[in-house]
Amino acid sequence: SKTSGNFISRATALAKPEEGYVADIVLYCVKAYHNDSACDVIAPAVGPETTVLTLQNGIGSGDFLSNRFGEERVLLGAAYIEASRGTPGITEEHGGSCRIALGEKHGMISQRTKTVSELLKSSNIDHEISGDIMSALWKKLVFITALSGMTCLARARFEQVLDNPQTYKLAIQVMSETKAVADAEGIGLPANIVETTMDDFMSHKSELVSSMHQDLLSGRPLEVNVINGAVSQM
After folding, report:
1. How many CA atoms, within 13 angstroms, populate the side-chain half-sphere of residue 218?
2. In what residue span(s) does the Ketopantoate reductase C-terminal domain sit (predicted)?
3. 23-131 belongs to which homologous superfamily?
4. Do residues 50 and 23 lie in contact, with contact meaning Cβ atoms separated by under 8 Å?
């Protein structure tokens, strides 16, 4: 880990929750193409007071989980980290900002949001409570539609995408389209978000890694339906 140094985390992995176990909080971090099977696994552990904090990429995770477990149990979040899977059991974190933003869909600062915040704080996880989590999710979507979409389209590292004038221009067009859809949906994004995001890209282009691009190269399913596909469907 470039941010925290190398360390070992000894976690207990289970195929399913133990019988009778009910979780206080579920961190929902699976790929979108595993949603149905993942929900089947966690369903027995989701009780009346359980909070499911989704940290999935893209748009629509909150609605999917609300339909399955009820909106009163779902908290929206965005994870910001540049990481990749190495050999089995090894995760590589590549630097940059490592943090979580979380909040209620409708903007209020609820008690359960504060409770989750205290848990993250006690675990030394950098985070912030957002009073406008939908804007945070769409701001991240502007970022990943270019990063993930363009690396997959070009079959190239993002640094190569940005160094090529044609794909550089296309990345700007992808972000501009996402911004236009956000505007149409009533999401409050900064007017200059395309420019500031591209500035960020250019400052860190050698560090940026797309998990969807890694999935493509490894022959795994893609999350395109909740990222670039979600924008085109609106």
Report:
1. 13
2. 132-233
3. NAD(P)-binding Rossmann-like Domain (3.40.50.720)
4. yes
pLDDT tens digit sequence for 128-138: 999 999 999 99
Q: Would you state the structure tokens that stand for residue 6, as one six-digit string?
A: 């190398």
Contacts with 76 (C-beta within 8 Å, 6 or more apart), sequence order: 53, 54, 61, 62, 102, 103, 104, 105, 133, 134, 137
This prediction's pTM:
0.91
Put the strands of the sheet holding 46-54 in their side by side order: 23-28, 46-54, 74-80, 99-103, 127-129
pLDDT in tens, 178-204: 999 999 999 999 999 999 999 999 998
Q: Which residues in the chain are classed under CATH 1.10.1040.10?
A: 134-233
pLDDT band at residue 86 using 50, 70 and 90 as cut-offs? confident
Residues of the chain with CATH 3.40.50.720: 23-131
Question: Is residue 28 over pLDDT 80?
Answer: yes
CATH number of 134-233: 1.10.1040.10
Scored b (16 or more CB within 10 A) or e, 116-151 reads bbebbeeeeeebebbeebbbbbbbbbbbbbbbbbbb
Q: Among 216, 231, 234, which residue's Cα sits nearest to residue 31?
A: 216
Is residue 135 within 8 Å of 103, Cβ to Cβ? no
Average pLDDT estimate for 142-169 = 97
